[in-house]
Amino acid sequence: MTAEVHPDPDAASPSDSSWSMWSKSQRAAGRRVAWIGLAVAAAALLAVAVVDRGGAETEVERVQRLQQTFACPECSGESVSDSNAAVSATIRQYINQRVAEGATDQELRDELVRAYGVEVLLNPPAEGFAALVWVLPVLVASFGSMGAAIALTRRRPAARAPTDDDRSWVAKARARVQTGDSTRDRATVADAGTDDGELSS
Amino acid sequence: MNSALGFGFIALGLAASVLGTAGGVYALASGRRSLLATVYRWTWLVVVASVGAFVIMEIALFQRDYSVSYVSQVGSSSTPPLFNFAAAWSSLEGSLLLWVLILAGYLAAVVVKFRQRLTDPLLGWAVVVMLGVSAFFFALLVGPANPFVAVEVPAGFEGPGPNPLLQNHLLMAIHPPLLYLGYVGFTVPFAFAIAALITGRVGEGWLVETRRWTVAAWGFLTLGIVFGAWWSYEVLGWGGYWAWDPVENASLLPWLTGTAYIHSVMVQERRGMLRVWNLSLLCATFSLTILGTFLTRSGTVESVHAFTAGAVGPALLGFFAVVSGLSVGLIGWRGDRLRSPGAIDAPVSREGSFMANNVAFGALAFVVLLGTVFPLLAEAWDGTRLTIGRPYFDSMARPIAMVVLFLMSTAPVLPWRKASTEVLSVRLFWPAVVAVMSMAVSLVLGARGLYPVLTYGLGGFAAGAAARQVVLATRRQGWRGFVGRTNGGMIVHLGVVLLAVGLASAESYRSERTVRLEVGETATVEGHEFRYLEPGADINDRRLRVFAAIEIDGEDVHHPSTINFRQMGQIVATPSVRTGFTEDIYLVLAENPDPDNDAIQLRVIIRPMVAWIWAGGLLMALGTLLALFPGQRRRGTEPSSAPVKVAPVPDGPPPADADTGPRSREATGDPEAGTSGDDAPDGAANRVGVDGRREDVRA
Amino acid sequence: MSVPEQLVTDPPAIDPIDETTGRPRRTARYAASVVGVVLVALIALFALSDPSDDDASSPLVGTRVPALSGVTMDVNGQGIDSFDIDDWRGSWVVVNFFATWCPPCVAEHDDLVTVSEWGTGDGPGRAAVGAETRVVSVVFNDTEEQVGAFFAQRGGDWPVVNNAQAAIDFRVSQVPESFVIAPDGTVVSHLRGEITADELIGIITQASGAGAADGTESGGEQGSEENGDG
Prior knowledge:
The complex is a heterotrimer of chains A (about 200), B (about 700) and C (about 230). Chain B is of the alpha+beta class. Among the domains of chain B are: about 1-160, no CATH class; about 510-610, no CATH class; about 630-699, no CATH class. Chain B contains 22 helices and 10 strands. The radius of gyration of chain B is 27 Å and the shape is globular. The model of chain B is unreliable at about 305-310 and about 635-699 (pLDDT under 50). In chain C, a hairpin with a 5-residue loop joins strand 6 and strand 7. In chain C, helix 2 (about 105-120) crosses helix 6 and helix 6 packs antiparallel against helix 7. Chain C starts with about 25 loop residues before the first helix and ends in a 5-residue tail after the last helix.
């Protein structure tokens, strides 16, 4: 049934004329090669983008990155980098100094958490209860994808037989078409099959 | 006087809403359709009441009538007219007044639009739901958030004026009304969705009726959000536009579910599927607008935007419970019976990509909601105070955004029902070329890093697919190739690409420095020279503004400043931004001129392509507008919701034409010709298409 | 356009049967139940959380003073020496965070000098509160030269510590900020913005006279109201 109502588009001949100097199979082969080329180019470009980062992180970059990961304790969720609050200036200054002294990210993190509590971290820690905030979205996205996949691969119920109403409807539509533009008939031979939703609603 | 009159109007509005709701429920439940007519009379009273109340408020603001409590809180004798006008929605009570005004506007529009079908129970229930919503908001205004309380003020009282942050930029005057037009606009499709659930008419009829309303509400919300971000960028002086602040998240949540809806609804229109899912999305969208209002108006979640107001918070929470409970209850009760039969033919199809879209937007909405409420959750769990900030949201949202961009590239070229590799390889070829080219160009221009370069690539891909559709449509339909839902939708997609590219650039390649400058000194940041010309100040009776004149690259002079508003004692750093096509230079006066030597601390932030974000937002709004224009001629009722018996109309073309034409062409595998068309190319092909389809049924 | 009456349909009276399994379809019901449970939890969470738990006063007041140690700056004749606030247990201590580039810091300096003279040596403060009152300044984002010149010009002979960690530990947002520490090491008051000698002496006198507990409270109150515009 499915095969009948969904003819392989490769079998239907596209009607554009610009490619006509090549055969259909030649065109398809050419396109395949071009696609492979595009895929390789995309992969190569992405690889360059990821690998060629221009050397190690400079101290200024590191300070900027760190400043963006700590929250201004008196604001709501703003980073100390974004915030104009005075306390943020204090923490920015502290980060500057500690980075200059050679403190590691972890040391800096621990020191600030000791002073201001966990809420100074804009990125919640992935431990204890807070780990849920990282795990739940992944779970939900997986369940959502699974649900969609099930819905998409669910076996379709068999099409019902056409009724007399359908036939008369088709006949009428046909009659009108006789007077219409016939050059496009070719394009319509096989629209896909039963539309359960429409027919049985 | 004003307070008595204003209160009279909101009391009238409450009475009319309550009576209209009750009368409508009685008329509909008892089956007396003739009684329904009275419901519409109540709606007009609601309109009169809300317009009256709003006008009285504006009059009181302009008369500086401080005997009205709201005016005494936000009015001031020195506020300029525009901001005085906008002060009407600068604080909680007034913004609720704006809410009911807009709701009444939508109510009136619904009643006028459907005036010939007023006895239809579907419409009746929809209007009843809207009246119920307006009853709630009027009740808030009469009770805990009454703006018209009569107060006595001492002689010579000048009024504080609105929050200074809200009175120094034009965008603040238009951002809230746009946002509310969007928020409140979702009441209309929600009301129809509830009506469809109650009447059991969950076919496509109600949904087609409300399609434009939904799209319009979505467009307003989009513009409201973008203008909000723009305002934040131009006014708040932190160099950013989106902080994942709870209030921003609250406005984004209904936008996300609304976006999911306006895509998946097409599956229902075309294929009659996903009925209950679409109803759920609409209910979720409306519930989230209420939840967002609760979060932002109750002070439950800490936010820079938060208003605090005693009893309004619990009331909004209660209303959220009612709305979401009603939705979930109705769907649970009737959902399984109302589900459409039928299934999707193949995963790689338009339907399949819309479902993937729904998963992506659903996941994003979940992340945003979770991140917003998680601090509360953690505190309730074990007392930990957590912050969920930018890095969390960024790291969650980025991969989803990549998926969305990818879907934007493939979905528009995918045919309905089923696609073949051949079709895809032909239709996606040029978009893929654009994708690779844009990645190459970005690399040559110096872009590095996975996400930005991937964004440029996928952005090019999506833009190519959207442009392909528009080009094919205009070639076939002339200027109509720009209007209609599909073509307008592609313009929206182009806007999204601009926005995504702007965001990726501005986020990834930002540089910043704070420099100390004395008068005449020059600092160089990222190849730009900043010369401190002179400090300055201007004082009027409202504020003291201190600024520094900074010359950039010897060309133009900018004045980053701090403004001290006298009445509020609040100091606001107002940035000065040099906006450009490729980069923005953002100057903040981090420290006022030193009294001794006039030295300043100047914060210089350079971010590339910020303007693309605003351009993208505006293009999205334009695309929405184009999508609202009818594309190809359409009929009021969609055939797909009609039972088979009704479908054959003896005279005139078969009603299915507008919808079936492009599908038939696409499914034949004529790859070059196929577009995503929901707007049919022309009549002849349509009719043939219908014919062909029916023949297959018989075969 | 009016809708034909026959479009008004009631849903089927029985649950639809899933063609593949032969059982009634209950997906919507199950999904709605799950969402309903989540909603109830969410609403309960919102209803029970208290929106007004923001504290305006400093969390440090009433707690033990954070560690403050380090090397003193070679200014105002103090020379380089090690400093630890715990060595000053038994005295009232005023910890002052300041910078030379901050106007209110400049303005309050004379008052600090007054307090120092009042509280140390044979100043009247010693008799009044039964213990010495000593001042220590912590430099905030400044250089030794600037600080040296500042003290040379404006007086003051107490130790000056340069310790970036201290500003974090004391949760300083914006200089100047001052803390009053009781002889037992409890933070009595956190003052934001410019202070005056009378204010400081008042706090110390009151806290010492009224006993530690009461003093803590009143000092805290005063501290939290003091939001100078620095």
